[in-house]
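ok trying again, last paste got cut off:
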Amino acid sequence: MCLWYVILTLSKWIEYYDHYKSVIPADVQMYAKNLRNEIKSKGIKEFRNNTVGHVWDKKTKMPITMQETQSRIQQILGPEDIDGFMRWVNDPTDNQFPRNVISVVEHVRDRIQEANGFTEKDLV
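nice, full thing came through this time. structure:
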């Protein structure tokens, strides 16, 4: 369930980028877009749409099996194991920009804050 929550949250970056890319400062635009594309290429949005919130496959009109779920998860993980995937998301010992999701999201957030003169309170 924790993995599904992470996947659900990652899929939100695609939506955020697609709707708000115009407010992302130019110096971090490429990093934000690269993260969006990497999340998309892992099939995370499709997994959210077709597996996380459903037990029924609309295409086959049948329940989603555990084997299908595992296969879809493996597509997201790629050659990484679950630990490697989670370090790609957040490595508490090495969150250096732009190595993982957290570092990119935080850096983009900070640049939006700086470029617009927002305070921490404005971003909540």
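cool. Residues 37 and 89 are 14 Å apart (CA to CA). The longest strand covers residues 56-57.
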